[in-house]
Amino acid sequence: MFTDKEINLLNSITESFSKRAKHAYLQSFNEFINEWYIFVQEVEHGYKMTIDDYTNDLTIRDLIDELLGKVPDTLKNKVNTLVDPADKIFDRVTNILKEPIFREDNPPWWWYRIPKKLVGELKEDVEANNIN
Fold first, then answer.
1. Up-side HSE of residue 31: CA atoms within 13 Å toward CB?
2. For a tag site, which of 30, 42, 92, 112 has the least CB within 10 Å?
């Protein structure tokens, strides 16, 4: 699907994200995209961590959006083809909110989503913070 040149560009972008976040290791593009898929699966099956963890994990999608802004359109289309299935699942397994979660700067659509299946600490946090 991706050429070696494209993978090198994508890896350099995701590695720059790792450096900016001061991660212990540099994350490859594949690992980076896989994080979004793992998060979406957790949401689908019942995200058990806190609202702070949930919002932190939503920033993965912010970074994907940032990455898309740094690549040529032809590569953007390929990345979108890879990301779209997870986005569609995330949309399906979440409910839309009236207000974005803890954001006021006109955030993208995923900040207006909360899991349909609320469990554990996330459920407690959603109820305590009256998120709806």
1. 11
2. 92
Taking the domains of the chain in order of start, what are their residue ranges? 4-128
d(CA 115, CA 91): 9
117 close to 93: Cβ distance less than 8 angstroms: yes
Distance CA(111)–CA(97), nearest Å, equals 9
Cα separation, 92 vs 113, whole angstroms: 10
CB atoms within 10 A of CB 52: 12
Q: Which of 101, 75, 73, 91 is nearest to 36 (CA)?
A: 91
Asked if residue 40 lies in contact with residue 86, where contact means CB atoms within 8 angstroms, the answer is yes
Position 25 pLDDT exceeds 90: no
- 15/85 Cα distance (integer angstroms): 24
In this prediction, residue 105 carries a pLDDT of 83
